[in-house]
Amino acid sequence: MARSDEVFKAALVGKRIPILTLDNKWHRLFTQSEFTPELKGMEKNLNNMLKRQAKLNTETRELKKLKKKLMDEVVILADAMGERPTKKQDKEMADHKRLIEECNEKMDAYEEELVELPRQINQLNNQLMLITMDVCYRKLQQNTKELSEIEEWIDGIRRELKKKVVRKQEKEAVINKLYAYMHDIFGAEVIELFDMQYDPEEKYRRKETAAQAVSPEKQTEGQEKQTGEPEKAEQAGQPERNAEPESKNT
Description:
Layout: H1 5-12, H2 24-27, H3 37-81, H4 87-186, H5 190-193, H6 200-212, H7 216-249
């Protein structure tokens, strides 16, 4: 394991671990490749124990019902037998006693197994949790490492992008300066004369137009601000105008 078994075992002390194979969230932790034959084998054994436990509980309840029924019949049969029982009654009584004894023996055996099964289930469930903790630990470490690498790559791209933006602006400045000088001398012919791919001034105008093309919401906000400014100015001016008569009265 990537970490000591003892570290994980100590973490389980005092914890109430749910039965993992019955937990859908546990199944979603693993990909198909991660669900190893060892995990599959332990899952199967644990489920078989759970099925056995449920079966024993059901059969124990049925045996208790049968025993009660037999005991009730024994009481009735004993009253009917009186002092001179018939052979048939003796046989029925013997059969009832035998069946009651069999019920007792089975219930005793089931009780012993039902005492042991929860311990075995808990032990196997904890072993399964230890393997689960190891898988989760390794996946957390691996994903954290990959996440750090991705974040580092993104930071590098951002730094490189900033450098490229600065260089782009520098190149545009050089082109604009050269174009402006030559355009003053040669006019519009400068584009063909110097095999230029575009008109820097036209490109600049398109950028300005795009920057000024704001969304309707921003235009509305701008209009509201413009509308609000005169109102604020007018409200701000009112105290001054109201103060003039007082100064005159003074």
